[in-house]
Amino acid sequence: MKLMTIVLGMLACAAPKHLQAQEFFAGGDISVLQSYEDLGVAYYDQQGAKIDDVLKYMGSNAVGWNAQRVRLFVNPNRKAPDGSTDAQVCQDLDYVVRLGSRIKAEGFAFMLDFHYSDTWADPSNQWTPADWQSLNDDGLKTRIYEYTKECLEQLVEAGATPDFIQTGNEISYGMLWGAYGSKQNRCYTSADANWSRFVGLLQQASKACREVCPQAKVIIHTERAGQSGVVTDIYRRLADVDYDIIGLSYYPFWHGSLATLGGTLRQLAKVFPEKKVQIVETAYYYQWQPAQSSTFTDFSKTWAVSPDGQAAYLKSLIAELKQHDNVNGLYWWFPEENGNGPGSKVLTNWVNRGLWDNSTHRALPGLYVLKEFLNRPGTGIRMMRDDRNDDQYWYDLRGMQLDSRPQRHGLYIHRGKKIAVKVP
Q1: What are the backbone dihedrals phi and psi of residue 271, each rounded to the nearest 5 degrees, phi first?
Q2: Cβ(51)–Cβ(353) under 8 Å?
Q3: How many C-beta atoms lie closer than 10 Å to residue 157's C-beta?
Q4: How far apart are CA 156 and CA 141, in angstroms?
Q5: Per-residue pLDDT tens for 260-280?
Q6: Phi-psi region for residue 256, left (φ > 0), alpha (ψ -120 to 50) or beta?
Q7: Phi, psi torsion values for 65, nearest 5 degrees
Q8: Under a CB-based contact definition with an 8 Å cutoff, are residues 213 and 156 in contact?
Q9: Sign of CA dihedral 400, 405, 410, 413
């Protein structure tokens, strides 16, 4: 490796040493944004001014986000196993490379969410991609390693290196179950069956992540935020997997009150003190909430189903999360929801949990609340004297400390200076 000795400028502020507790991330899963923009859907701010570049606006002082999440399907161009199609299931590798490159160019941290499926992967749907269904368990372990590595290599080559990598989406009951409708290979905390297989798959996915993106943090994502005992047991069973962060989905109408979430976070801190936690999905309705059912709890008396009620929910959630030192990330799911595009529908039905109004295309108050998660004393990049040179660590331009000297071309911070690194 050759280090170019061209110093590109002294920094008025340089990065602190990497302390996980002092790094916080707030943003959204913006997986459909590229589709909306390709269709020419208009976005406006809260006052009605047109937003020319939504991604850039999300990183502006007005919104203040510093991270974005994007999902990746294996072959989303197929029909779903039940014969249906969904315009939101469009994120193939080319799509993610395109959007991910923009995310990194704008200076955001980038979370990549592998679904390891041709369609939605969630607690009820973890169907093996059609092209992988003939493989046995050993073949699947090889394939998930190869696929993860291939995707990451292309992202790195395109300048879209992920900072966080989810090896699976809401994998509370395992992954790669089999063909659509199959009950094989599911994992339950009440039984030991299939857990060894599940661990083996995750180990191979993590191996690929470490090889291609050694600086990235690996996330294992589940959605039992309302059941502290269950979620604790899941991560105990995954103790032999190499990962860094516990990722949780938390939707109050499915997972319970903030007090319930708080109990889960305290339990995770107690049992897994070395693991950070990120809420990688959350949302709340601003209009037309579905009818209450056995699996859906109405919180409208706590937070009204309105734009202001949605913002109030987010404020309450942030206040709760700030009480837990193990939580360092918060992502709103599908904030870019913005009605249907001209000539082609992005959505079959509106979800009504985004941060833009589906009818007016104006930003909702909650869009501007999320950054409050980042506002806390004693964090961020600290001021340093221009002549300070006793910090031996290397940092990327977002202030994240590297584990070693830079291994790729780029601009880095070292001893309070920007330095261009060229790797032969």
Answers
A1: -85, -35
A2: no
A3: 10
A4: 23
A5: 999 999 999 999 999 999 999
A6: left
A7: -80, 155
A8: yes
A9: positive
Give the number of other Cβ atoms within 10 Å of residue 142's Cβ. 13
**Concatenated DSSP letters for 135-199?**
--HHHHHHHHHHHHHHHHHHHHHTT---SEEEESSS-TT-S---STT--TT---TT--TTHHHHH
Structure tokens at 27: 């943003």
Amino acid occupying residue 96: V
CA end-to-end span of the chain = 6
Place of tokens 């056995």: 294
Statement: the pTM of the whole predicted model exceeds 0.90 = no
pLDDT in tens, 185-231: 999 999 999 999 999 999 999 999 999 999 999 999 999 999 999 99
Element housing 100 (H / E)? helix 93-105
- Residue 173 CA to residue 83 CA, distance in Å, equals 24
| Amino acid symbol at 117 | S
- Kindly indicate the confidence band of residue 291, based on its pLDDT and cuts at 50, 70 and 90: confident
Arithmetic mean of pLDDT, 178-186: 91
pLDDT of residue 420: 73
Q: What is the mean pLDDT of residues 7-23?
A: 38
